[in-house]
């Protein structure tokens, strides 16, 4: 009997004064996690013990290791990423605590580069208290793009919807100037590629939202749809991509039209994230597409207001775990079916060489 090798899933601790470790521990209480992967948390056993006691979680413990070679495939593992004492105060943004979130991230990066973990799920950080020589980035996405090959694309997803914003963390006043035909064409192409490779959608249908109210109303309420967005959609469609729009965002979501598409491109951050969070606030996942590695995270922050109170819902983090494992599986399958394909039209030399496929 062959042994199925489970993927090794790295987990970063996030802001230690937030809810990161709480949602991680609650996720690890689900036995399905260790059935599907070997999880390893990059943190400190002392810090995790402090959180467990504060949250009164007595029926769980990690397998403590000091080297990745000591992984136990049947249990959640914790690799000590630092030895220093950490003074914690739940709900308080603290640069002295934020630096340990960076330590966790750097440990995960080294493990990814060495191939000792297959993917990473990141707990939420406070980007204002993590800034340092090792972390001078607006967020996780830019951090991982700096360390790995590829051009990152943020995809927010749930069971109902997948959205990528054309512009992300920029002031709304700067959005119109950043919407160009070239950028939109590139986004459509990369989004389609991710939907195929990472999500296993064979022929994805993509919707593009308009920038202005009523998608510009044929130029009466803005010209971006006429001059830029529609021409880009038409050019992409003519290359064989099933992309449609621009759609008026309010009617698109309000009527349920979004259900007909495999992916949606919004023009700016809130246009896409508001409907996603209304539909799946406790299940949304942030997936960093376009890179050589797989990284997901829950679609929420450190939630200082409820930190240490045992009130955090772990479903978004758990969905981030499932999504990372699904993407790993889909990427592996795509590689298998596209490696060394037979030349088009190649015929077998005899009937005896025919292979019966069990479909």
What amount of the residues lies in strands? Answer: 15-25%
Helix- and strand-based class?
alpha/beta
In N-to-C order, the SSE pattern is: EHHEHEEHEHEEHHEHEHEHEEH
- The geometry reads as globular
Low-confidence stretches at least 5 residues in length (pLDDT < 50)?
Answer: 347-359
Largest sheet: 12 strands, mixed
Explained architecture:
With 359 residues, the protein is of the alpha/beta class. Helix 7 (181-197) crosses helix 8 (224-238). Strand 8, helix 8 and strand 9 form a beta-alpha-beta unit. The longest helix is centred in the C-terminal third of the chain and has 24 residues, at 315-338. The relative contact order is 0.15. The chain has helices at residues 20-28, 32-36, 45-55, 95-114, 140-147, 175-178, 181-197, 224-238, 249-254, 269-280, 315-338, and strands spanning 8-12, 38-43, 63-65, 77-80, 119-122, 150-157, 162-165, 205-209, 242-247, 263-266, 285-291, 295-298. The protein is built from eleven helices and twelve strands.
Secondary structure layout plus pairing:
Layout: E1 8-12, H1 20-28, H2 32-36, E2 38-43, H3 45-55, E3 63-65, E4 77-80, H4 95-114, E5 119-122, H5 140-147, E6 150-157, E7 162-165, H6 175-178, H7 181-197, E8 205-209, H8 224-238, E9 242-247, H9 249-254, E10 263-266, H10 269-280, E11 285-291, E12 295-298, H11 315-338
Parallel strand pairs: 1-2, 1-5, 2-4, 3-4, 5-12, 7-10, 8-9, 8-10
Antiparallel strand pairs: 6-7, 6-11, 11-12
Helix pairs in contact: 7-8
């Amino acid at each position: 009997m062959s042994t199925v090798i489970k993927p090794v899933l790295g987990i970063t601790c996030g802001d230690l004064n937030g809810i990161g470790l709480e949602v991680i521990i609650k996720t690890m209480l689900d036995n399905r996690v260790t059935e599907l992967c070997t999880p390893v948390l990059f943190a400190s056993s002392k810090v995790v013990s402090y959180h467990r006691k504060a949250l009164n979680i007595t029926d769980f413990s990690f397998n403590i290791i000091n080297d990745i070679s000591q992984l136990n495939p049947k249990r959640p593992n914790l690799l000590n990423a630092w030895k220093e004492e950490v003074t914690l105060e739940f709900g308080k943004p603290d640069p002295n605590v934020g630096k340990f979130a960076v330590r966790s991230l750097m440990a995960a990066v080294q493990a990814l580069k060495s191939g000792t973990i297959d993917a990473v799920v990141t707990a939420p950080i406070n980007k204002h208290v993590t800034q340092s020589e090792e972390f001078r980035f607006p967020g996780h996405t830019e951090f991982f793009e700096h360390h790995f090959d590829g051009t990152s694309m943020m995809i927010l997803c749930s069971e109902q919807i997948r959205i990528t914003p054309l512009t992300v963390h920029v002031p709304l006043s700067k959005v119109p100037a950043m919407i160009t035909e070239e950028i939109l064409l590139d986004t459509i192409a990369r989004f389609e590629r991710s939907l195929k490779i990472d999500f296993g959608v064979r022929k994805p249908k993509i919707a593009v939202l308009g920038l202005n109210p009523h998608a510009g109303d044929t130029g009466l309420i803005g010209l971006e749809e006429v001059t830029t967005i529609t021409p880009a959609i038409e050019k992409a469609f003519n290359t064989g991509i099933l992309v449609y729009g621009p759609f008026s965002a309010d009617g698109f979501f309000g009527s349920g039209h979004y259900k007909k598409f495999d992916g949606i491109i919004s023009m700016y951050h809130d246009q896409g994230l508001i409907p996603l969070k209304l539909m799946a606030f406790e299940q949304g996942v942030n997936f960093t597409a376009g890179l050589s590695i797989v990284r997901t995270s829950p679609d929420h922050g450190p939630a200082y207001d409820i930190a240490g109170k045992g009130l955090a819902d772990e479903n978004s983090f758990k969905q981030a775990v499932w999504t990372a494992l699904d993407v790993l599986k889909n990427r592996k399958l795509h590689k298998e079916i596209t490696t060394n394909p037979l030349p088009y039209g190649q015929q077998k030399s005899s009937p005896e060489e025919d292979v019966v496929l069990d479909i």
